[in-house]
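Can you make up a protein sequence with its backbone structure tokens?

===
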Amino acid sequence: MNNFWKEIKSPVFSLAPMEDVTDTVFREIVMGMAAPGKLHVVFTEFTSVEGMNHPVGRERVSERLIVNESERILLKEMGVKLVAQIWGRNPEIYANIAKYISENYDFDGIDINMGCPVKKVFKIGACSALIGEPGLAKEIILATKESTPLPVSVKTRTGIKQHQTEEWISELLEVDPAAIILHGRTQRMQSDGDASWEEIAKAVELKNQLKPHIPFHGNGDVFSYEKGLQRIQETGVDGVMIGRGIFQNPWFFDPAKTEITKEDRIDKLLAHTRLFEQTWGGIKNFNILKRFYKIYLNSFPGAAKLRADLMEVKDYQEVYTYFQ
């Protein structure tokens, strides 16, 4: 198995998998704004193995694994790795789908979601709920690893109701995932409170004692590239994963670009809209785009009015006309 996680030299920066956010369009836009060598790994939205395993469900669920040709070209040019993130709770189905993805797609790795804190997902015993079932979690990782030649990483949290970092991470280390990405919050915290980088540092220390060869990445509240570098230095992680930081600044992975003009912002908004329309035209709801408009339209005089106006538009054409 070729584990790319080990080959990328620290500091490694990745863009987190996010629901209704990190589709092929947004990944391409973010990569197009990144400076060379500043972004190393991107992820798909999380894809249900149960959905993929169902002959009817597969068509809809597999939209999450679509990669545009233009994104594919950019990935190659920039040397960025693309990882499919999957979730569920049945080891056998994980094995089927890991095999299916490896044979039918061109991803660089598979990541198992053991971190999503959303209540409806937690209730069915998937994602962060697996922290409470380490036996099953390990079975899932082993079943997935056995059925794919791709490196299998795990993204997780520090606990369910409270931090149980060392106890939980030592369970994961037993089954040698290709990499571990730890978000410094519990399931109960959702996105509230501060992410605990002290807990992430504890996990790194434990990993260094038990399995020093496993790459370890931290996630949570990194809102600038400099802050990411600081976290790497303080805690000894190999890299950081950026989630909400990209909403504050879509140019996150180009740290030298400190001045972003209104024109730049509108250009990107329009490029994003056009690419979204080409990719998802008759498939996805146009309104998904509005969450991105909020990301681009800020930090210049009159931004609030523009944002308010764009919340009212009904379709692609209205957006293009608005900016003519």
Q: What stands out?
A: The longest strand covers residues 81-87. The radius of gyration is 19 Å. The mean pLDDT is 96. Residues 17 and 45 are 5 Å apart (CA to CA).
